[in-house]
Amino acid sequence: MTVSSLARPEPPLERYAEAKLPTPHGLFQLRVYREPATGLEHVALFHGTLTGAEDVLVRVHSECLTGEVLHSLRCDCREQLELALERVGAAECGVVLYLRQEGRGIGLGNKVRAYALQDEGMDTVDANRALGFPDDARDYAIAAHMLRDLGVQSVRLLTNNPDKVTGLQRLGVRVNERLPHTVPSHELNRGYMDAKRVRMGHDFPTDL
Ligand SMILES: [Zn+2]
C-alpha cells in the first residue's frame, strides 16, 4: 500500500457515466455509479429536479436476473420494477435505484442453489439459512450514498418491506413515508410471497 492510498482512501462509490434514457414510462436520466473496490456498477434512473427536493418518490430495487431478464415466475421482482418505473415516471420527480445485489445479496449462483433447496420443500428463508447465508444480505449503504449524491433531502419510499425503511434510516436517509408497492401474486410465486410476508415481515395483503 502506498502512502498516498493511505492518505486518500477510495470513495465507496463514484459517478462513472450518465446519459438520457427514453423508456415507455418517460424520459429518464440514467447515471451509473461504480464501486471502485469491487467494480460493481449500480444505476440511478431519475427525472425532475432532485437537488434539495423533499418527499421524493423513490424505489430501491435489487437486481434479479431470473425474474427481470428470464421472466421467472418464482418471484415478483420484474413486476415490482415495472410498477416502480411506472409510478416514478408518472410523478413530478423521482428515482429508481437499481442495485447490483442479486439474490438478496448472496449472488446469482447461490440464489439458484437456494432455489434447488426450495424445490425440495424449503421456503426462501430456510433455504438461505441452510446455505449459511442470512435471510437478507442486502446492504443499503450504496443506496443512501446515491440519494445523497442526487441531492435528495427526504423520500417517500415505494416498498412493502419495513426493514428497508429502517435500514435506510439508519444510514441517514429521511424516509417521510412508506408507500405500499404491491403487485398481484399468482400460483407459482404464492409460497415465496407468503414467506416474505410471514417470515420476513413484508407488509401486504394476503388476498392478492
Ligand atoms: Zn426475483
Question: What can be said about this structure in brief?
Answer:
A seven-stranded mixed beta sheet has the order 1-2-3-5-4-6-7, with helices on both faces.
Draw up the topology in text.
Layout (H helix, E strand, L loop, with lengths): L2 H5 L6 E10 L2 E9 L6 E7 L8 E7 L2 H4 L8 H14 L3 E6 L8 H12 L4 H7 L10 H9 L5 E4 L3 H9 L4 E5 L10 H11 L8
The site of zinc ion has 4 residues, from loops.
Characterization of the model:
The chain is of the alpha/beta class and 208 residues long. It has one domain: GTP cyclohydrolase II (Rossmann fold). 34% of the residues lie in helices and 23% in strands. It has eight helices and seven strands, in the order αββββααβαααβαβα. It has helices spanning 3-7, 65-68, 77-90, 108-119, 124-130, 141-149, 162-170, 190-200, and strands at residues 14-23, 26-34, 41-47, 56-62, 94-99, 155-158, 175-179. Strands 1-2-3-5-4-6-7 form a seven-stranded mixed sheet, with helices on both faces. A hairpin with a 6-residue loop joins strand 2 and strand 3. Helix 4 (108-119) crosses helix 5. The longest helix has 14 residues, at 77-90. It starts with a helix and ends in an 8-residue tail after the last helix. Residues 1-5 have low confidence and may be disordered. The site of zinc ion (ZN) has 4 residues, from loops.
